Amino acid sequence: MVDIHRTHYARQLGEDLVGKQVRIGGWIEDVRDIGKLAFVTIRDVTGACQAIVTGDNVQAAVQAPRQSAVIIAGTVQKSKAKDFPVEVKVAEFAILTKAVHPLPIDPTGRVESAPDKRLDARALDLRNPKTAAIFHLRSAGLKVVRDTLRGEGFVEVNTPKIIGSASEGGANLFGFDYFKRKAYLAQSPQLYKEQLTLGLDRVFEIGPYFRAENSHTVRHLTEFTSIDVEAAFLDYEDVMDLVEKVVGNVIRDFNENHRVELAAAGVQEIPFGSNKKIDRLTYEQCLDELVKEGEKLSFGDDLSDAALRKLGEMHRGFYFIMDWPLKLKPFYIHEKEGNEKLSKSFDLQHGYLELVSGGRRLHDPERLRSRLVEQGLNPASFSEHLKAFDWGMPPHSGWGLGYDRLMMVLTGSQNVRDVVLYPRDTDRLTP
Amino acid sequence: MVDIHRTHYARQLGEDLVGKQVRIGGWIEDVRDIGKLAFVTIRDVTGACQAIVTGDNVQAAVQAPRQSAVIIAGTVQKSKAKDFPVEVKVAEFAILTKAVHPLPIDPTGRVESAPDKRLDARALDLRNPKTAAIFHLRSAGLKVVRDTLRGEGFVEVNTPKIIGSASEGGANLFGFDYFKRKAYLAQSPQLYKEQLTLGLDRVFEIGPYFRAENSHTVRHLTEFTSIDVEAAFLDYEDVMDLVEKVVGNVIRDFNENHRVELAAAGVQEIPFGSNKKIDRLTYEQCLDELVKEGEKLSFGDDLSDAALRKLGEMHRGFYFIMDWPLKLKPFYIHEKEGNEKLSKSFDLQHGYLELVSGGRRLHDPERLRSRLVEQGLNPASFSEHLKAFDWGMPPHSGWGLGYDRLMMVLTGSQNVRDVVLYPRDTDRLTP
Fold first, then answer.
1. What are the binding positions for Mg(2+) 2 in this chain (chains A, B) (predicted)?
2. ipTM of this predicted complex?
3. Considering only Cβ atoms within 10 Å of each terminal Cβ, which end of chain A, N or C, has fewer?
4. Chain A partners of B392 at a C-beta cutoff of 8 Å?
């Protein structure tokens, strides 16, 4: 019976270990047979190392299919190989699970695979250092986001993904039978997070949300990860500062602590203005700029994908668009004092891509009811939500950040499917 | 227009601020009118403070419904009140949103409310310091869990909640129409997390899962939060050590850093054996103990709720039950070498309550296929999963921890609904 435990990861093998016994677990990436011995490259989650195999083990190594899971044990010695300062002279060479060839993709990345093939074999694709780097960065970013929000006094919450009413009109919701009733999958925690400011003051949630949208783009999925915050007694410009801090901290962490993963993903350094501030354009400024560029737009028009692409060419990197026309924004968005055609709202853009949407919310139940009616929604179907506004709702602001899209931007990926382990779209339900 | 920004939280008001201007945002908990002035207790997320209101503001304060959202500004001065070292002499007193009475529950907790009424008014219930404490602890625990797992080299992942096949038989799954196909809500990330060990080595996920179970108990919900881990090259006893570390760190953090919240929840200190180890009983030991107590059980029988309650009386606090009969465990569980009737499996119990289930997994595709057949499952419907085992699957172990249940135990709650903000069960879909 093989001992499955290892003592070290590949990256830990250094000259300080020369003469020591080690056990390494990983997979066979390469074997070079030179007769009496073989050089085996073994990779694990941290990197690659070289194993020198002799005797009976040579045949075993030569016959082992690439990508098989192995565990080796032996003595660390200095190496003459240019890529490895040390190597392992193998005493025990055990194949744990043989890989079955042909493999659906080449996880070394030497042979490029079609995106769909990679997604079909995602687990194997994670042996490609570039793919692995993206998901290590994704994990690292979540920590920075949470630490930043906690540092600002936000409490992590879990709100339900199963909801009882198709509140925002019911479009694009997945519905299902729920013990003789109808239930839906949440598109966002919007209503819950607003209610929670009543007692918890500042809340955040990072979770999956669902949209039954028949989109075929590089930036839409039916299931996505959203970072949502909501805070009492903050105005919209305060939570824009918070966006800046969250995104800025992730970028700094990646640039400072994850250079290796960034490089593996093909990114040298993520640019983020020298003053760590993000430009704040108003909707009307954007309109002026676009009209000058020949776009036919007037106040109240939404900015089309084409318009946003043009804007993204004029404003490289991140920028906010704020003070949108009120009628373009959802019922819960607060109007701007002094100009009620405008709203206390903002989007964070990166080029044409919308990453964040947020704003100050209405806290007055009467105005909220009026806005529902104005937007053709039925206040009765929001009764569960509206009642919380009769319990002394504080003024509050918040935002939702599409984490998958942020990861696209930061890892230089052109398709959201590159930064989601098992993406879901109209065509893809497996693996 | 009222400035909605505050400068301080209630808990921050101390003698160091005497003479300083402050703005406090919160809600009116109490008003005592003594003629020319009124004492107003204002509570926010951190605690309560006293405001001294004079002049025109007295009438406003006296007439303000309790629980209304307010913001006050004034000067900090020493107080003669026994509960407050300092108080705020109010210059500005602004009611932001009036509470509408009668309120559905008394959030001060002075009048006890029925559990269902509290859930119907959860946002208001969060103004009850006991309820708030539970959810502050819940948030704090998530940080400790994540930090512990990251410290052990685990990568945070997000696997899909929408799945394409009812893989483990289809019982208790919520199903729905998905672009002319059938999709389901995931009950666990089991298959995904196993696959991911192929490249990411150690993964964890904290997310919502769904069970269409017609249960009416204090410990089952249709939507629950699970902490899942899976690790290559670890055996089941290694991941039991990890359970011990994760649970132990949460308990230590609560006992050391969250005494106030624990006390508010009604817990003095969470006991956790002096050596921070959790007893490891085998299934067969448990069987012997139960038979001695008169239970009619023989090898291979599952332990009923009644049996577990009896066991819980004999073993107070946390304990593991390990080495279950193989046939009682899911197809992916590894048999014990040397006794193939037993499995490398474990549950973490607290009294009768199962908190964690885990074990070593099969990594050999042939044995996995045989086990599927033995258990009456069709390997063909697992083809998407099985193919990953042909890519050099490492030996691996893992577990799933029901976070809601852990929070029940740690906060001394008798009902899982006390530790979930918006619980979902067969009857409850709102708010």
1. 354, 357
2. 0.97
3. N
4. 27-28, 65, 67-69, 97-99
How large is the average pLDDT for residues B196-221? Answer: 96
Element (H, E) at B53: strand B47-54
What would be the CATH architecture of the domain defined by B10-97? Answer: Beta Barrel (2.40)
Measured between CA atoms, how close is A2 to chain B, in angstroms?
A: 11
Kindly tell me if the per-residue pLDDT of A343 is higher than 90: yes
Kindly report the nearest CA distance between residue A82 and chain B, in angstroms.
25
B223-232 and B47-54 as β-strands: parallel, antiparallel, unpaired? unpaired
Q: How many CB atoms are closer than 10 A to CB B338?
A: 7
> Please, are residues B81 and B97 in contact by the beta-carbon 8 Å criterion?
no
List chain A residues with CB under 8 Å of B121.
Answer: 387-388, 391
Pairing, β B162-163 against β B181-185: antiparallel
Residues of chain A numbered 48-77 and touching chain B (CB < 8 Å): 65, 67-69, 71
Confidence (pLDDT) at A109: 85
Contacts of A398 in chain B (CB under 8 A): none
A contacts of B223 (beta carbons < 8 Å):
160-162
How far from the centroid of its chain's Cα atoms is residue A162's Cα?
A: 22
**B121, B162, B393: residue with CB nearest A424:** B162
CB contact under 8 A, B422 and A44: no
Beta-carbon contacts of A410 under 8 Å, excluding residues fewer than 6 positions away, are A137, A141, A250, A251, A254, A267, A270
Residues 6+ apart with CB under 8 A from B123: A195, A196, A198, A199, A388, A391, B431
pLDDT for residue A168: 63
Q: What kind of architecture, by CATH, is found in domain A123-418?
A: 2-Layer Sandwich (3.30)
When the pLDDT of each residue in chain B is averaged and rounded to a whole number, the result is: 96
The whole-number average pLDDT for the span A322-342 is: 96
- Residues B298-357: tens digit of each pLDDT: 999 999 999 999 999 999 999 999 999 999 999 999 999 999 999 999 999 999 999 999
Pair B200, B358: CB distance under 8 Å? no
Within 409-428 of A, beta carbons closer than 8 Å to B belong to 420-422, 424, 426-427
B157 touching chain A per CB within 8 A: yes
Nearest Cα of chain B lies from the Cα of A198 at a distance, in angstroms, of 6
- Non-local CB neighbours of A344 within 8 Å, separated by 6+ positions: A235, A236, A323, A333, A334, A335, A336, A359, A360, A397
Q: Give percent above pLDDT 70 in chain A.
A: 99
CB contact under 8 A, A161 and B163: no
Q: Phi, psi (5° rounding) for residue A85?
A: -70, -35
* Beta-carbon count within 10 A of B47 CB: 16
Are B121 and A391 within 8 A, CB to CB? yes
User: What mean pLDDT value characterizes chain A?
Assistant: 96
Angle subtended at Cα B16 by Cα B15 and Cα B17, rounded to the nearest 5 degrees: 85
Q: Facing residues of A378 across strands?
A: none
Closest Cβ–Cβ partner in B4, B200, B223 for A45: B200
Tens-digit pLDDT profile for residues A232-253: 999 999 999 999 999 999 999 9
**Domain ranges across chain A:** 10-97, 123-418
Q: Which residue of B96, B138, B421 is in closest CB contact with A159? A: B421
Indicate yes or no: CB of B27 within 8 angstroms of CB of A392.
Answer: yes
Element (H, E) at B399: strand B396-402
| DSSP states of A356-421 | EEEEEE---HHHHHHHHHHTT--GGGGHHHHGGGGBTPPPEEEEEEEHHHHHHHHTT-SSGGGSSS
Q: Give the helix/strand (H/E) hosting B345.
A: strand B345-350
β-bridge partners, A90: A74
